[in-house]
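Entry:
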Amino acid sequence: MQSTLTDDTREFRAPQTMTPSELGDNLARLVWESFSDFVSQEDVETPLPDIDTLYDDDGSAQRTTEEALIFFMWAHTRGAQLAFLRRAPDALIRDGLDAMHRAVFEDMVAHGTPHVQIPLFEQRVSARYAEYHQAAAESDVRLGQAVSRHLAGNGTREALSEAIRERAVAVANPLRDFLEDVELVGES
């Protein structure tokens, strides 16, 4: 059997190692891809509601957009943490996640978010992460309810909560599976 260059290039091979910087860059790209799918409604496997249907005013829609970004950041953080649990030093994992957050925040500024708003956004991210980690520790249902409350306001919607739970699993599990074959190594 003769292999062609085309056949060889079609086979994806995961990297064997990744530095925290590489992990951060890859995670940031995945966060933005998930977020873009949410905003454009391209993901039909686990649809979340259209932002425009959640609220009547632009301010609430903006908040929902930011909450969606926070959720996707958290879901990718969780997937990476699960993948490297007991396999990589905590400091390397933390460095990779810090790199992801820096990259996302830099992208936000590059695309129009005033730099002075980033510290406030970081505080909201920190508060949501604490809430989402606690909810996820209790159950996937509680996680869906917590995220739904922030996306849709005070009243949680069961369909939204379920879609969020499914999305968190759809993000975290494949990411964890992919990263389980990658060794996190220090920067050279």
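The chain has one domain: 18-181.
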